[in-house]
Each structure stands twice: as C-alpha cells, then as structure tokens.
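Now for a concrete sample entry.
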Amino acid sequence: MTKRILVIDDEDGVKEIIQICLESTTNWEVLTASSGRDGIKVAQSEYPDAILLDVMMPYMDGPTTFKQLQAIPGVSDIPTILVTAKAQSYEQQEFLDLGVAGIITKPFLPENLVIDICKILNWNDVDCINEN
C-alpha cells in the first residue's frame, strides 16, 4: 500500500524540493499545505501516514500546529516529523519533548531525506524504495 506524506511548509520552494525528493525515490503520495491551518484541514480529511511539519511559519508555527493536531482524535496518531533550521541540541530537545516522532534539520541533503524519514519512523526498506 502506498504511503501518504503530508508536507506542511509556508515556503513553496521547500515543499517542492521535498515533494520531488519523495516522489522520485519512493512510491509515496505527497500531499502539501502552505500553513498550519491548511495542514490541519488536510490531515483531518486525508489521514496521511506521516506529516513533515516546518517549525518556522507565520501565523501558526510548527509546534502550535502540532499541538492542535494532537487534540484531534485519529489525527493525533499520525507520526509527525519537524523540519527546522534550529540545530542547537537544546532547541531540538524542546521539540522532542512535545512528542514529535523526530526532527530533520535544514538544510537537508535531498538524497538522504527518504532515509532519514524511514529511520525516524522505523519504516522497513520495502516502504522506502521505489520499485518502478
């Protein structure tokens, strides 16, 4: 069964890079949203297998969006990975303390993105390779 990943990021370029990386190297379907509010709506209607959530967004940042996702039955079970430029260990620990599945630090290497997601989510190799 095809994995579905929701990418929530206000930067179109970042969303596009992530989408291209994931779709070109896996069989995953990538859903996108440009804000926390839109991401919550997509998560509620589509129930993706995982969420990649940018930390720094206007209006509603990643941690606030994550807390709201956690308050929604069914959606709260979706593993969420924060994507952030905040690389200090104390900053990352604060994010992990929220209950996210993991953190991917920007800038990330596109060729390592799928590997990093699969490691964080403990997905097996079959889910993480493109068989086309």
The chain has a mean pLDDT of 90.
